[in-house]
Amino acid sequence: MRWRNWGRNQSASPRLVLSPRSEDELSADVARIASSGRRIKVVGRGHSFSAIAVPEDVQLSTARMSSPLSYDDATGRATVQGGTTIAAMNRWLATLGRALPNLGDIDEQRIAGAVATSTHGTGATKKGIAAQVVGARLVAPDGSITDVREDDPLLPFVRVNLGALGVVSSLTVQTVPAFRLRATEAPMRVDEVLGRIDELVDGTEFFEYYWVPHTRWALTKQNQSTDEPAAPGSRAANWATRVLLENAAFGAVCRVSRAWPRATPRLATILPSTGSRTRIDESHRILTSPRLVRFRESEWALPRERAADALRAVMDVVERGRHLVSFPVEFRFGAADDVPMSLAYGRDTAYVAVHMYRGVDHRRYFADVFAAMRELGGRPHWGKIHDLGRDDLRPRYPRFDEFVDVRRRLDPGGTFSNAYLDGVLGPVA
Ligand SMILES: Cc1cc2nc3c(=O)[nH]c(=O)nc-3n(C[C@H](O)[C@H](O)[C@H](O)COP(=O)(O)OP(=O)(O)OC[C@H]3O[C@@H](n4cnc5c(N)ncnc54)[C@H](O)[C@@H]3O)c2cc1C
Predict the structure, then answer these.
(1) Paired sense of beta strands 40-43 and 58-61, if any
(2) Of the residues 26, 42, 385, which should be mutated to test ligand 1's pocket, given the most ligand atoms within 8 Å of the CB?
(3) CB-CB contact of 182 with 98 (8 Å)
(4) Beta-sheet strands, E only, within 111-248
(5) CA of 237 to the centre of ligand 1 (A)
(6) Considering only CA atoms, which residue is closest to atom 51 of ligand 1?
(7) Does the pLDDT value for residue 156 go beyond 70?
(8) Quick one: pLDDT band at residue 359, thresholds 50, 70, 90?
C-alpha cells in the first residue's frame, strides 16, 4: 500500500503495514519484526514535511491505539495512548474541564507524533507540547516495555525523541484548567511590528504574526486569557481572517498565483485589507484551525534576540531572490526549555516558517531561506523541510551526543531508523 504525507512531498511503499490494537499486540509485533532484522517506522498522522516518518520497510500505525486512558484529578495529569489525536485529546480534556496549556496551529497530529518532532505553538512564556510530558511507556526492539517516569533520566530524551528511541505506547501530560482566549487579529505595518516587537511578544500571552510577502504589511494575532463568556462571532465575521488566510478563498488566491506567478505581488495586497476582528472562545478553538490549503513548509528556531533580524532576512531573501511567494511567512515565539532535542533547548526562541503552495516549486526559495536561517543560528524543525545533516546539527544542540548515545543503547540495531534519521543523527552502528 502506498503511504504519503499530508504535504504530498514524501511517499513510500512499505512492504508490510501493521496496526496493533493493544500494547500487548504492539510489543509482540515489534519483537517479531525486529528479530528478523527488518526496520520499523511508526507513523503518526503523516503531517511531517520532512522524511522523518517515511516507512521504508515496515509501517507501524498507531491509529487503533488512539484513546484516552486515565485522568488523575489530584495532579491534573492525563494519560492517553500514543496514537490519540490532539483533537480527540482536546475534546476529552474539555469534558474534564481541562486543557493543554499551548497548542500548534492544527489539532490533527497524533500526540506521540507531535511530541517526537518538538511541535510548538506561540507565546513568550509558553513551551512546546513535549515539555508537558511527565511520563511515557516505551516499547523496545525486543518488545519489552519501559515505564518512563518523571524522575527517570531517560524522560528528557523521550520528550522529543524523533521517533528514534522506540514506540511510544502511551504518554502522560500535565494539563491545566480549561481557559478561554480573547483573540484579536489585525493588520499592522511591518515597521511598526519591527519597532514594537519585544513589547508585542512580551505583552501578549500568545502572540504571532504573518508577514505578507511583496507588501510592507503583517497580520498579527494576539490571544489573551479572559473570563468573559465565549463570543465566537458569526461565520461572516470570521470569514476574512480565518477563511481568507487559512482556507478556501486563500486557496483560490494561491491557484491564481500558481497559474500566473507574476500576479503574485498584486494578489498579496488583498491579504492585509482584511481588517481587525476580535472573538472569544475556548483555548483549543482559538489556537487551532483547519488547514484546507495544502502546502510545503520549512521552519527554523532562532535565538529570540534575532527576531527582528529574522524578518529582515526573509524580506531580503524574497526581494533579492525575486521569489514570487503567495503564502504569508509565519513568526512565532516560545520559552526556553531543557528538553535535549527540543527546538527551544536552552534559549528563548523566535520561530520563522515559510510555506509554498503545493505544486509550486519551493526549492529555490527554501534554499535561500535555509542559508539565511543557518547564518542566524537557526535549528530546523525536525518535522519540516530542511537541508541540515548530522554534522551541521550537532553543534546546534549541546546535548546531541547524549541523545545519540541513548539511541544507540535503546535501539542498537537501528530498528526504528530510516534514511532521514540516519542523515540527521548518523547511522546507529
Ligand atoms: C498543516 C500543518 C500544520 C502544522 N502546524 C504545526 C505547528 O503549528 N507547530 C509545529 O511545531 N508543527 C506543526 N506542524 C508539524 C507537525 O506538528 C509535526 O510534523 C508532527 O510531528 C506531525 O505529527 P504526526 O502525528 O503527523 O506525526 P508523523 O509525521 O506521522 O511522525 C513524526 C515522527 O513521530 C514519530 N512517531 C509517531 N508516532 C510515534 C509513536 N507512537 N512512537 C514513537 N514515535 C512516533 C514518527 O516515527 C516520526 O519520526 C504542522 C504540520 C502540518 C501538515
Answers:
(1) parallel
(2) 42
(3) no
(4) 133-139, 145-148, 167-174, 176-177, 180-189, 206-211, 217-226
(5) 31
(6) 47
(7) yes
(8) confident
- DSSP string across 42-97: EE-SS--SSGGG--SSEEEE-TTS--EEEEETTTTEEEEETT-BHHHHHHHHHHTT
Measured by CA distance, the residue closest to atom 53 of ligand 1 is 47
Place of cell 543557518: 374
Domain 180-380, what fold? Vanillyl-alcohol Oxidase; Chain A, domain 3 (3.40.462)
Question: How many CA atoms lie within 13 Å of 9's alpha carbon, on the beta-carbon side?
Answer: 25
C-alpha to C-alpha distances, 263 to 121, 217, 243, 256, nearest whole angstrom: 32, 18, 21, 8
Cβ neighbors of 370 (< 8 A, separation 6 or more) are: 298, 380, 386, 387, 388
Q: For ligand 1, is residue 168 a contact (CB within 6 Å)? A: yes
β-sheet with 77-81: strand ranges across:
68-72, 77-81, 167-174, 133-139, 145-148
Q: Is 292 exposed, middle or buried (0-12, 13-18, 19+ CB in 10 A)?
A: exposed
| Residue corresponding to grid cell 529570540 | 304
Choose the residue to mutate in 59, 106, 421 for probing ligand 1, maximizing ligand atoms within 8 Å of C-beta.
106
Q: How far is the CA of 319 from the centre of ligand 1 (A)?
A: 31
Mean pLDDT of 181-195: 93
Grid look-up 505595518 returns 189
pLDDT at 250: 66
**Nearest ligand 1 atom to alpha carbon 47:** 26
Residues 6+ apart with CB under 8 A from 203: none
CA of residue 117 to ligand 1 center, whole Å: 6
| CA 297 to ligand 1 center in whole angstroms | 13
Where b means 16+ CB within 10 Å and e means fewer, 246-267 reads bbeebbebbeebbeeeeebbeb
The class that CATH gives domain 42-177+391-425 is alpha beta
Q: Where in the chain is the domain with CATH 3.30.465.10?
A: 42-177+391-425
In the chain, list all ranges with CATH 3.40.462.10: 180-380
Q: State which of 4, 56, 81, 117 you would mutate to test the pocket of ligand 1, scoring each by most atoms of that ligand within 8 A of its C-beta.
A: 117
Q: pLDDT by residue (tens digit) across 210-249?
A: 998 988 889 899 999 999 999 887 555 554 455 455 556 6
